[in-house]
Amino acid sequence: MGATARDFRWFWAATTVSVFGSQVTGLALPLTAIQVLGAEPLQLGLLAAAATLPFLTVGLAVGAWVDRVRRRPVLIAADLGRAVALATIPLAFALGVLTIEQLLVVAFVVGVMDVFFDVAYDAFLPVLVPRDRLVQGNSRIETSRSSAQVLGPGIAGFLIGRLGAPLAIVVDAVSYLLSAAFAWRIRAVETPVTRDAGGVRGWRALVAEIGEGLRFVLGSVHLRHIAGTTGSFNFFTAMFFALYLLYMTRDLRLSPEIIGLVFAIGQLGLLAGVFVAGRAAHRLGIGPTIVTGSLLSGVGLLLIPLAPTDAPVPFLVAAQLLFGLALPIYNINQRSLRQAITPDRLLGRMTASMRFLVWGTMPVGALLGGILGTTLGVQQTLWIGAAGASLAFLSVLLSPVRGLRTAAQAVVGP
Asked: Is 271:150 a contact under the CB 8 Å cutoff?
């Protein structure tokens, strides 16, 4: 479609800078709830649930809508929306009116913008990169995203320690403004598909298109089993990470600077994972690589509740390194497989349907994590989350995904 390498670089820059800022909010938002507002496990579960609830409530409709429009303006609008929503937190804190209810609303609004951005992102990349080079394109983006994730937590911990969690969120708001500016520079020409769903218009057409996307995903044995693994993994990791920072601050008594350093060192695994993702797929085949990545991702989390309270940092770092290594190996290859086997006209709805199925489990997992953290205890809940995540690989292991050498083997036609 006339896309150029320059367009891809702008897209690359936009995603990288927004990921960098998100690392700050990923620590600062829950730490604001914990340190400023004294949040308990159930409130942290609600906060984590609010951030992912939009994938369950509006994701399918967004996917059908994104397939009707050009994706670049959607990316820009989503970035601007996230910037405005996050900027209200330091403003409210400065005015002395910040509440847990506002954090819940902001988390939900940012989550809605995340839905628009993520669906448009997956549908837009094939406009910029030929399908036979999607693994390379995703790997390049993941390399810089991972670099941002390595640097981000350390800087986030420093900023939170020096400025306080609410004011550190300003950095993320600025990063989304930069991301929008970079996306605005892309000049690739898109031609959205116009359809009327068999003569039906309006909301009925939207419902028909949503149904078509869901049928495509559930009708594909490969996509169905990928959804099974990713959905169960996300359910248990949402339960886990809803309480992880509370465990680090209250049970292990770690400072924001040490927490940021743990995440930063652990994120080095992401760089290694991105580096080997394509090579592993070439050597082992894309299917075995997906299975291996999903297995190792969950196993790494088991080290965290095992960490001794008197010297937890080495265990936490090792867990983050293994988790960080395995996750991009899984994500790069399963995302590339999904993009490669999906027709252009269904890319947005495929992404939204997958997000609905696999991210829709996260608010439920996070809320359950908050409930279990209140009733059973935080460390016990981490054990449950880690154990469940370590078994999520079974869906792809016991499916035809396991035997795929290349994505082309899974293509069944338009």
From this structure: yes
Q: Tokens 């049970």 identify what position?
A: 251
DSSP H helical ranges for 342-393? 347-359, 361-375, 378-390
Q: pLDDT digit string (tens) for 152-185? A: 777 888 888 888 889 889 988 998 999 999 989 8
Q: What six digits make up the tokens of 261?
A: 């350093």
Tokens of 348: 């947005």
Please name the residues in contact with 310: beta carbons below 8 A apart, sequence gap of 6 or more: none
* Residues of the chain above pLDDT 90, percent: 46
> Are the beta carbons of 335 and 142 closer than 8 angstroms?
no
Token pair belonging to 408:
């082309």
- Which CATH code is given to the segment(s) 5-182+197-410? 1.20.1250.20
Tokens 């892309």 found at? 186
Q: Is the pTM of this model over 0.85?
A: no
- What are the residue boundaries of the structural domains of the chain, listed by start? 5-182+197-410
**Mean pLDDT lowest among 190-194, 222-226, 404-408:** 190-194
Q: Which two tokens stand for residue 330?
A: 């899984």
Greatest mean pLDDT among 2-11, 117-126, 231-240: 231-240
Do residues 238 and 363 make contact, with C-beta atoms less than 8 angstroms apart?
Answer: yes
Neighbouring residues of 2: CB distance < 8 A, sequence distance ≥ 6: 188, 189
Handedness of CA 184, 65, 344, 116 (dihedral sign): positive
The identity of residue 126, as a single letter, is: P
In eight-state DSSP terms, residue 69 is: S
| CA 176 distance to own-chain centroid | 16
